[in-house]
Amino acid sequence: xxxxxxxxxxxxxxxxxxxxxxxxxxxxxxxxxxxxxxxxxxxxxxxxxxxxxxxxxxxxxxxxxxxxxxxxxxxxxxxxxxxxxxxxxxxxxxxxxxxxxxxxxxxxxxxxxxxxxxxxxxxxxxxxxxxxxxxxxxxxxxxxxxxxxxxxxxxxxxxxxxxxxxxxxxxxxxxxxxxxxxxxxxxxxxxxxxxxxxxxxxxxxxxxxxxxxxxxxxxxxxxxxxxxxxxxxxxxxxxxxxxxxxxxxxxxxxxxxxxxxxxxxxxxxxxxxxxxxxxxxxxxxxxxxxxxxxxxxxxxxxxxxxxxxxxxxxxxxxxxxx
Length: 322
Fold this sequence. Notes:
Helix content: 55-70%
Largest sheet: none
Order of helices and strands: HHHHHHHHHHHHHHH
Radius of gyration: 20 Å
CATH architecture: Orthogonal Bundle
CATH class: Mainly Alpha
Shape: globular
Low-confidence stretches: 1-5
CATH topology: Ammonium transporter fold
Structural class: mainly alpha
Distance between the termini: 36 Å
C-alpha cells in the first residue's frame, strides 16, 4: 500500500523525505567546493542556517498544529543549505540566523508550512539579507585568501589581505571550476552540473522551467550584451551570477513553480527575461534572487488556468465557478 504524503509530493513514488535527501546530496558538491575555496567557515554558516531553519520549522509546527505530527521531510534543511551557498563566505553568523528565521517564520510557516508557501524560503531569506545587510552581501573575498579567517563569522567583514585578487578571470579553468570572487557556493559550473546529474539520475529534475530559463539567458545574452560580447565573459556571468544554481534548484522546486509543464516552461522564460533586464538595466545584486520571487507570485495563476483537465469536463475552473 502506498503511503500518503503531504503536498506537493502526494502522488510521488518516493517519500518526500527521501527526495529532499537527494537534493541535499546534489547540493553537497557545491558546498565542498565552497569549503575548498573559502575555508571551514562556509561549513559553519551552512550548519547554523540548516539548524535554525529546522528547529524553527519544528517548533512552530508543533505549537500551531499540535493535532498534526511533524513530518521530517528535510525541506527546511534544503532551504538552509541553499541559503548558505548564496551568500559571501565573509557573511556573519548573525545575519544568517536572522535570515533563516525570516524564511522559516514569515515565508514558510506563516502560510501553513511545507507545501503551502508561496515564495521559495531560501531565496526569500537571501532577499532579506540584500536589504538588511547590503554591505555583507557584496562578495569581495578572493578564493584561498581567507581560509583561516574565522573572525568574519562575527564581524561580517573580510580582511584587506583577502581582497587582493581581481574579481574576474579569463582562464577557462578558473571560470568552470569556480575560482572567482562571488557567492560561496554558486560559482563552480562543474560542481553544480555534477549536482544536476544526481537529480537527473534519481528522476527528481523537471526540465521545463530550467529549459525555458536557459534558452532566454543564452539567446538573450547576445542582444543584451552586444557591446561586450565574448565567450569568457558569458561563462563568467553564468558562474558568478548564480545562473546555474537558479536553473537547477530554484526552478526545480515543486512548491513554488507551476504544476503544469506548459506553465513551468513559461515560468522559466519569464524568469530568464527578468534576470536579463535586472542584470543589464537594474541592480545586478538583485538579479539572482528577485526574478524567482517575482515569478513565485504568479504560480497560483498558472495553477488555476493550466491544470490538467478532469475527464468528461471542459475546463475545470469553469465547472468550479458554476
